[in-house]
Amino acid sequence: MIDSPDEAKRYSLKLLGYRGRSESELRKRLDKKGFSEAVVSLTVAYLKKIGYLDDAVLAANLKRQAMENKLLGLEGARSFMVRRGLPCEIIESALNYEYDEDRELKNIQKLLDKRLKSVRNYLTEGEKRKLWNFLVRRGYSFETIRKAMKEVKLGEETE
Amino acid sequence: MMKKTFLLFFAMLLISHAGCAKTLRYSDEEIKDFPPPVQEKIKNNEISVGMTMLHVRYSWGGPDSVRILAPLEDGKERVEWIYKKAPFFKTRLIFTDNKLTEIMSSEPGVVK
Questions:
Q1: What are the residue boundaries of the structural domains of chain B, listed by start?
Q2: ipTM of the shown complex
Q3: How many CA atoms lie within 13 A of B52 on its CB side?
Q4: Helix, strand or coil for residue B85?
Q5: How deeply is A68 buried, as exposed, middle or buried, from its count of CB atoms within 10 A (0-12, 13-18, 19+)?
Q6: Chain B contact set for A69 (CB, 8 A)
Q7: Mean pLDDT by 10 residues, chain A (159 residues)
Q8: Tell me, which fold does domain B27-105 have in CATH?
Q9: A7, A11, A55, A61: best mutation site toward chain B, by most B Cβ within 10 Å?
Q10: Which of A107, A147, B28, B72 has the fewest Cβ atoms within 10 angstroms?
């Protein structure tokens, strides 16, 4: 066990420099490094007080990353944020926006455009199913996927 | 010889533009509570003394390396963020208690 608050603070500042982390992620890293529970709590409290550690700020950041950079659906964004150790209430408050179907359809279209390039201009039933599953894994609802897939012009397979 | 020079120049050009892909690092919602001059800097991918680590991250993204410096005599924390661009340009930012206090760069135009 390491019982040096200064060392924990320095290690945390280094970790937080590279990228934003949630309180839970930071606690795990400090714990893994061997800092005692008391030192971890003290360090986390200090970092929160001076604004280095802020789950709400991170949530807003991850929401944008999920929806705009990774093109995830609402459910995908939620899972992404859960995996980063954010508490449920902060995730829900960050995702608390009017469901924007147009935006989701646009994102799906971008994903489909990328995928369709690699399968030329026709899709077999199997490829359609793969696309459907791919969009489900990205966290889009069945209803939105159905609408998006309807709008995609799919050619017939030629022998 | 000409071909080699051209290839070398092209490779260097590619390296120097590595990481310049336009991935948005912020949304208006994320920066709406920052002071207007800071918002303007972030939109222009600029940094200035007085910005916090969060502001700099929104403007430039995360650093390539981080060093924890010895604290000042009054106990203020000092952290150095280092950004490397191509093999030749290096920018060092020193934060004192979460405020950008020094900018040192070998890249032209960074320090104004």
A1: 27-105
A2: 0.70
A3: 13
A4: strand
A5: middle
A6: 23-24
A7: 86 91 96 95 92 92 91 92 95 80 86 74 77 91 86 55
A8: Beta-lactamase Inhibitory Protein; Chain:B, domain 1 (3.30.1450)
A9: A61
A10: B28
